[in-house]
Amino acid sequence: MRKQIRLMAGLWLAWTIAGLFYITQDSVPRLYRGQTVAWKYVFVGWMAGMYVCAALTPAVLWFGNRWPVERRVMNAGFHLCLSVVFSILATVIEVPVLLLLGVFPAATPPPVITGIRIFLSFGIQGGVLRYWAVIALQAVYRSQKNAKIRERETFDLRVQASELAKQLATAQLSALKMQLQPHFLFNTLGAIIVFIQQQKTAQAEAMVARLGDLLRLTLEDVEAQEVPLWRELEFLRLYLSIEQVRFEDRLRVHIASAPALSETLVPHMVLQPIVENAVRHGLGQSEEAVTIEVGATSTNGSLALVVSDDGPGLVSPKPDHSGIGLTSTRARLTRLYGDSARLDVEQAAGRGVRVRITLPIRTIPAEGGQ
To answer: What is the pTM of this model?
Structure first.
């Protein structure tokens, strides 16, 4: 109801402005020539004609919506016929009103039929033009409205596409992460089986207990793609405690990280496959004890995670050659950070291998800043 009221008020206001335009156009030349202006006849006559058009405008708008002029040429022909009908109908209504108000522009008021003929002979074109003015304005409004609708639909589609892309990226990251979890899990279970076969019950029980703690920690962060550095190092210490049970005194571990970096976000389980490679290739191909060092430093706004060992060094002459662990880690880094992250594998100075992961420094926003 409010919309209809606003529409009707707008129509009557528009036709009032049009009537004032015609009144000005009719009066100013007469005043310029020094003629007397019969204000009653001019004002009431023009406004009566405009308000008759205002009363017929809702029907014109209905026809304009039913047969949009911009869609088909046949619609334009149809509206041309309707414009003539509109002009005749407006005149048939306007003449009796003017005669009733006593403002018919003639010294002696003629009969109604005669008055209609007089008005049609001089003003049928004006009625046709008024009809087409309404149709044209409606077409312009409809075009702007459709453009806004298309713009909104385009925006909604972009939002949906962005959400779908985000969901796809999350799914791909989760898939890469799932490649890592069974990888270390199967290796650990294999080690437990070996202990059981060797009747090393204490070591097997210790590994099972620590594996339980490790799985609990993994499940707590199963949905997380990034965790604080202190959380990642806690997970890594649990993993290495399992490997130390397996290799006993042959595996030595040093983990160092500045306290200021503890809240820096890193990919969950990003260090585990790197350290697992160091254990497998370092201890697996050496009879001597191997030391694995893990460090975290910040330089020029970037976080550097370095895993190095003093084992026999690279097996492959191509440093970029890697198995599932490093491949999945590289893919996750690309998905999460694009070109802002790197993973470099190189021969360490002297003995061993050094793996360096470079990440942009990101932290969890403080609650007060949300």
So the answer is: 0.49
